[in-house]
């Protein structure tokens, strides 16, 4: 839904910054990213897909990589960085 909203707002170079694409819920979010592009007839630039590690520094470096791209994104869909509490 987020990516569809961004596309409806006129964004075309949308990046995906995530981590652990081997986890089903995170892989599903990436699949949703691709499906939204397909639904609107847009292609995905592979250089705008970043799989970082699950830590702040890696996600920060991923964002810098995206923003330093020769053709940077005009929007970034970023997976939440969360911590699981043992309680």
Map the helices and strands.
Elements: H1 2-8, E1 14-19, H2 24-39, E2 49-52, H3 56-67, E3 75-78
Parallel strand pairs: 1-2, 1-3
Description:
- This protein has a 3-stranded parallel β-sheet, sandwiched between helices.
- Helices cover 40% and strands 16% of the residues.
- The protein contains 3 helices and 3 strands.
- By secondary structure, it is of the alpha/beta class.
- The N and C termini lie far apart (31 Å).
- The radius of gyration is 13 Å and the shape is globular.
- The mean pLDDT is 85.
- Helix 2 (24-39) links the parallel strand 1 (14-19) and strand 2 (49-52).
The SSE order reads HEHEHE
**Number of strand elements:** 3
Q: What value does the average pLDDT take? A: 85
Order of adjacent strands in the largest pleated sheet? 2-1-3
Can I get a quick summary?
40% of the residues lie in helices and 16% in strands. The chain has 3 helices and 3 strands; from the N terminus they run H-E-H-E-H-E. Helix 2 links the parallel strand 1 and strand 2.
